[in-house]
Request: fold
Amino acid sequence: METILTVNHLTKKFGPLTAVKDLSFTIEKGNVYGILGPNGSGKSTTLGIILNVVNRTSGDFSWFDGSTSTHEALKKVGAIIERPNFYPYMTAIQNLKLVCKIKEVPETKIQEKLELVGLWDRKDSKFKTYSLGMKQRLAIASALLNDPEILILDEPTNGLDPQGIHQIREIIKKIAGQGTTILLASHLLDEVEKVCSHVVILRKGEKLYSGLVDGMMASYGFFELRAADMEQLKSFLEQYASFGKIDSYNGTLTAYLKEEMDAESLNKILFEKGIVLSHLVKRKESLEQQFLNLTKNN
Amino acid sequence: MLRLLQIEFIKLWNNRASKVLIISYFILLTSIALIAAIKFDIGPVQFHLADQGIFNFPYIWHFNTFVAAIFKLFLAIVIVSMMANEYSNKTIKQNLIDGFSKKEFLMSKVLTVISFALISTVFVFVVSLILGLTYSDYNELSIIFSDLEFLLAFFIKLVGFFSFCLFLGILVKRSAFALGFLILWTILEQVVFGLLGWKVMSWPAAKRVKDFFPLESMMNLIKEPGSRLSAVQNIGDQIGENLRFDYHTYWYEFLIVICWTAIFIYLSYLLLKKRDL
Reply:
């Protein structure tokens, strides 16, 4: 595996406040990473540090194999932080040409990238005339100009309307589909769940978890069940060793598994006991539930 | 280096306000030539400013650089806002994320400032040369090209002043406030001079200290040329005032301004480096 970014014991203090505390993680090529955390958990600060706009208090980080300076490495990175920042009096094309000059890449990719985000017909409009959604899409086009090794997105759908959010997600999926490494910071969990394979979870500047999304919690999922005789169903399940907690809510039983079991075999067992189900669903905890559990327990 | 200049050029030239100010500045520089047209013709009193010797070589170098330096305020506005706007649009953050180093960012600004000063100097040189060749009473090559140190002084003065503007732009981060600060600083230098002379030391000593203040030292590079005109000196002689001051610029005066320039650029760099964006 090729390493793109290594972060070692990174700490950032703003006066008495510690925004990032002893944070370490690595980013491997080809994966889609999510950085999760509530507001103020240090996501943006961490990204700010690795992107050369925030000074670190201690610790270090290195891009790629660590042999280039940060600003040289950033030329191979595409990043959008919070709000799209461009020169308001310049058109989309002029702004992108400027970015090409800074990144030292040829201007030939401008059309391709503007078409990718659907802004080619507005290429000669000034940036200040754009809607927020368009600004955000222009920012993505700008971040892609150098065909980056890694794309860093900080809250890319913040403040957008549902349509805008959908457009941005489609673009992200398209880019992820091309095999670009992506680092996505967000507090919107379903967003991360939909596109990310790995997560880093932060709370108050500390890392709670980093690794595969699926491995976040040792969990076997749960069943949602309904039958004509709910009492009988409940008492049976309570005796059965595979189940832990059993909740009853709105006429539906939720039975949490303690070991692996598929829906088919449960159905079979219950049928043999004379319990006929009218509703049977097996689910995994959503990332949101897992996240809330994780941030609560620690 | 060319790349850094190109980047700054794209930023400046696409901004209508900056473009207008830059063009007006160079038009104003050219308009020094219009002084030649000042002519009073009231019956027996005929007064033609161009005939009063202001366009004589080498005096013209002194006079034109002094007048041209007044217009630097136009570029000061452009420079302060080109720096402050990077903060208010947060584009400095984007520039850094896109792979600009803080050093490159500052260098692109400093190079632009030096280019402005250089182009202005060449401009003043050409305009003065044409005016001089048209109106000067002396046209020997050796006289034409004497006292050229005023052009050097002009260049150093502009670079120094513009670096100060850059620094203020970075320090204050808002163009209007930075310009206000510039005016405040001008007044402050005089107030400190006044206080020093009044309470702390003798007036001549205070005058010497004042020569080390940044704006004052830039002023000293090109001293006021009016009293150098023979007409003015004749009047001075008649009323018993000796107006023959020392007009020349000394090496240490250059040195003071160069030091300030270095200090301003270095402080700008420190600010950039230390600040979180």
